[in-house]
Write a structure and sequence with these properties.
Length: 159
């Protein structure tokens, strides 16, 4: 939900994200909606969503192994994390889920397929591991497989 009370809903069967303003019953497609696929105007199993102050929509595009950013009114998105196929390199994600973005535009994403949380600074071509990744047991000491993340008020990341 954004500061205006609009609700954003991912629909993994239609491969889209819809925004529902108060009183609307149909909603408006704000990301995807062009069938499943890996083009920049498509999503493939969108799961988690984050809305920033500019109403840009960040979507964890699970089966494309990427996080997409859709600016308000855009017809296609921008890859902001992953997008280099599935894998465990710093340029890759494996079934990304929870995503949050801080005030600097840094993307934090739960990467459960790799048992890690990744940080992708704005404009970066690769991310960095901030939790997990190398030691499967390390992430379990924190909290099972990471599926979600939250940025605190002092740039802390809560799992």
């Amino acid at each position: 939900m954004d500061e205006n009370g609009s609700l954003y809903v991912t629909d993994y069967e239609k491969n889209e994200v819809r925004r529902y303003r108060r009183g609307e019953s149909q909603g408006t497609v704000v990301a995807g909606g062009n069938g499943s696929g890996n083009r920049l105007d498509q999503l493939y199993t969108p799961t988690y969503v984050f809305i920033d102050r500019n109403h840009s929509v960040y979507v964890s595009d699970r089966d494309n192994h990427r996080v997409m950013k859709w600016m308000e009114g855009a017809k296609q998105g921008i890859v902001v994390a992953g997008g280099q196929g599935e894998g465990n390199d710093l340029t890759q994600l494996l079934y990304p889920q929870g995503v949050v973005v801080d005030q600097l535009g840094t993307v934090y994403v739960a990467d459960p397929g790799n048992d890690r949380i990744m940080r992708w600074p704005q404009g970066a071509t690769q991310g960095s591991v901030i939790v997990g990744g190398n030691d499967h047991d390390e992430i379990y000491q924190i909290r099972s497989t990471p599926k979600d993340a939250e940025v605190g008020t002092h740039a802390s990341v809560d799992l």
